[in-house]
Design brief:
Blueprint lengths: L7 E2 L4 E3 L2 E4 L4 E4 L2 E4 L2 H12 L7 H8 L7 H15 L4 E4 L3 E4 L14 E2 L18 H16 L10 E5 L3 E2 L7 H16 L6 E3 L2 H5 L8 H8 L3 E10 L2 E10 L4 E11 L6 H13 L16 H16 L2 H17 L4 H16 L5 H18 L4 H13 L4 H14 L4 H13 L3 H14 L4 H13 L3 H14 L4 H13 L3 H15 L3 H5 L5 H19 L7 H10 L3 H14 L20 H10 L9
């Protein structure tokens, strides 16, 4: 094994594939342009290249690059993620339980005269493409000057010609955790408002990623690096009796300097619509011509209804069925006070729809009221991007109206190109239509807007899997499990993809780990057959038995049962379950034509008839 580099790093240029790496400048040059990386990220790359294809553990990277100081696994993983963005997803391979390996590199040469530099000097300041001045109006200059510089530069830009803004969770300084919903509501409103401004100039990071920092003791620099953000909006809320104090500031990520700040003190009646007011001021400051006179859409007409909407959003964001039910109650409370609140109707649509997608409510029970609420919301305010996406998903998964669904999703992205939900939903529709390259582009866009969301990262792998790009699915799910080893959906996908790339032994190892996390006892695992494929089939039967048992007390998707029947050799049982899925309008049924789980029964005429009933490209293929 080669010795670890220590003390000094080479600044000699080298290649990774078709990219030229220039350590002395912290730059990577390639066909798409120049990417500037942080010094520590470059040090990780230089060390990986110096090992010439060997596997390098996380511990070794910490010893060499961070000189043994304590850093979290996230810091290493984020450095690897940034390098993959610059070099391509396939450039760095994750070796489970061992570390990382750089693929296809020419190692950096030994440093020449004057080329050895102590690691402590490798900290050149990152140049930004904009000038900054005080006040809201000069946020506009940030974007517009940046755009002009990107458009007129004779050299390739150092990063894509779009600035990235993250609205951090507003801190609740009231000392009362029950008031968290107010700050969360302000955060979401700002994300939504700013995201719809100028897609070619400004990308606004999604809620899930920014909320992952709520309550965490993370520095602004660390947050900005993790989110790859150029600017941060940070704020706090304090409620004291009838008084509310809201503070907001805009921060330059490179040096954490405050570019603009504002404080508003209001009585309780003045809180109504505050989120829209602050967001509108920021929006108009960034680019006044983008919002030509459109007034803010208030969440509700009365303070009590407004408060109920914010509570509904708070519970909606938590995602679990019990919280979704509480959000339904809160939105209905708001509508009882203000039937004309588009925000309350939109929230109700989302909550009811998610209860169906999470299997907490049967589709025929939950979808009709969700659709009614979505249409009512859009009749009151047609500019609700995420509600267009929700309606599109209902038309796709429940009505099987593929054309109408795509129109709604495209409309959502016209209104708010930074809607991760709309990119995500469109990706699944394009995937089901076998428009694989388009689907991958959309799911990647969703991931870019939600870089720290485990689900967003896992869905990239699932899209690769169903597009039958199994090697890429393996690599993506390994990265996702690096982020969260307990995420069972990612492990299930990895298991299936490994089977298809001819690694049944590793697939079985993943399946055993999933079963262990689910609580399968060691004696049951020991009783599995020794042959990997037979053992995998045995585990599929065990999962099937477990789900059938749960079906006596909760709703279980017949599509999920059908997939397990197909994988475990039960052809007739799988087809019977799919017939029930048709009757119940199972929302997962639209993926039937592209789901590898059904390959064992794909040639069956009965299966083809079910695909034809759902529609999509599989029903239009010549026989």
């Amino acid at each position: 094994m080669q010795a670890e580099t220590s003390g000094f790093l080479s600044t000699a240029d080298f290649h990774v594939g078709d990219r030229l790496v220039r350590p002395g400048l912290n730059r990577i040059e390639g066909p798409a342009g120049v990417v500037q990386v942080e010094p520590k990220v470059m040090e990780v790359l230089v060390h990986l290249a110096g090992r010439q294809g060997d596997v390098v553990s996380k511990d070794e990277l910490v010893r060499v690059v961070w000189e043994g100081r304590f850093v979290s696994d996230d810091v290493v993983w984020r450095s690897i993620r940034e390098l993959r963005r610059a070099l391509g997803d396939d450039a760095i391979e994750t070796i489970p339980k061992r570390g990382y390996r750089l693929v296809e590199s020419s190692p950096p040469g030994p440093p020449g005269e004057g080329e050895q530099i102590p690691r402590k000097h490798l900290v050149p300041r990152r140049l930004l493409a904009v000038s900054l001045v005080l006040g809201f109006a000069l946020i506009a200059a940030i974007v517009l000057l940046g755009v002009r510089r990107f458009e007129t530069a004779s050299r390739a830009p150092a990063r894509p010609p779009r600035l990235r803004l993250a609205v951090l969770p507003f801190a609740n300084l009231s000392g009362d955790p029950s008031q968290d919903y107010f700050g969360d509501g302000l955060t979401e409103e700002l994300i939504s408002r700013l995201g719809s401004l100028a897609p070619d100039r400004l990308g606004v990071l999604g809620r899930t990623s920014v909320m992952s920092f709520k309550g965490k003791d993370a520095g602004l620099g660390e947050i900005a690096r993790a989110l790859d953000a150029d600017y941060l909006v940070e704020g706090s809320v304090r409620r004291d009796g009838q008084r509310v104090r809201v503070a907001v500031r805009l921060i330059q990520a490179s040096d954490q300097s405050t570019l603009w700040s504002d404080v508003q003190e209001l009585d309780a009646r003045g809180v109504l619509g505050l989120e829209s007011h602050v967001a509108e001021r920021v929006a108009r400051a960034i680019s006044p011509e983008i919002l030509p006179g459109r007034a803010p859409s208030l969440t509700a007409a009365t303070p009590a209804a407004h408060d109920a909407v914010l509570r509904g959003r708070h519970f909606l964001s938590r995602g679990m069925p019990d919280n979704l039910r509480r959000s339904v109650d809160a939105f209905r409370e708001a509508l009882a006070l203000d039937p004309g609140s588009a925000a309350a109707w939109a929230g109700l649509a989302d909550a009811l729809h998610l209860l169906v997608l999470f299997g907490a409510v049967p589709p025929r029970e939950g979808i009709p009221p969700a659709e009614e609420a979505a249409r009512k919301a859009l009749s009151l305010d047609d500019m609700l991007a995420d509600t267009h996406a929700t309606l599109g998903t209902i038309e796709f998964r429940y009505h099987w109206d593929w054309t109408g669904a795509e129109a709604e999703m495209r409309r959502a992205l016209e209104i708010n190109p930074s809607s991760a939900a709309a990119h995500h939903d469109l990706a699944w529709l394009l995937l089901a239509e076998r428009r694989f390259d388009e689907a991958i582009a959309e799911i990647r866009a969703a991931q870019e807007l939600e870089p720290l969301s485990i689900r967003a990262n896992a869905d990239v792998g699932w899209v690769f899997y169903r597009a039958r790009r199994y090697g890429e699915a393996v690599r993506q799910m390994e990265r996702t499990l690096d982020m969260e080893p307990r995420f069972l959906s990612a492990r299930r996908c990895l298991e299936g993809a490994l089977v298809h790339v001819g690694q049944p032994e590793e697939a079985l190892r993943q399946a055993r780990e999933a079963a262990r996390q689910e609580g399968l006892d060691a004696t049951e695992l020991a009783a599995l057959p020794a042959e990997p494929r037979a053992a995998l089939q045995g585990l599929a039967k065990r999962r099937l038995k477990h789900l059938i048992g749960r079906g006596s007390t909760v709703y279980v998707s017949p599509y999920t049962l059908a997939a397990l029947y197909a994988e475990s050799g039960g052809r007739d049982e799988a087809l019977a379950a799919l017939t029930r899925a048709l009757t119940e309008r199972d929302p997962m049924l639209v993926s039937l034509d592209v789901d590898p789980a059904f390959d064992p029964i794909r040639a069956d005429r009965r299966f083809q008839e079910i695909v034809a009933t759902v529609g999509g490209p599989g029903s239009r293929r010549p026989s």
